[in-house]
Amino acid sequence: KALDNVNLKVRPHSIHALMGENGAGKSTLLKCLFGIYQKDSGSILFQGKEIDFHSAKEALENGISMVHQELNLVLQRSVMD
Q: Can you give the residue ranges of the ABC transporter domain (predicted)?
């Protein structure tokens, strides 16, 4: 189980960093928030509303972005996309 009983609160209109040990679930948490991974259970609240993004595009359209550590996440897109 990568994530269990996680609470993360951030301030609007600011940049945040998530730090922790290797294997702690940082990337998994952010990928669930960003719509890359789908959560198995629980809920994600954003601006007081439950969200369940199914794509990075959907997350971006709702004001959520992230800097990825992997460079190969979107192989099927062109630079113009």
A: 3-78
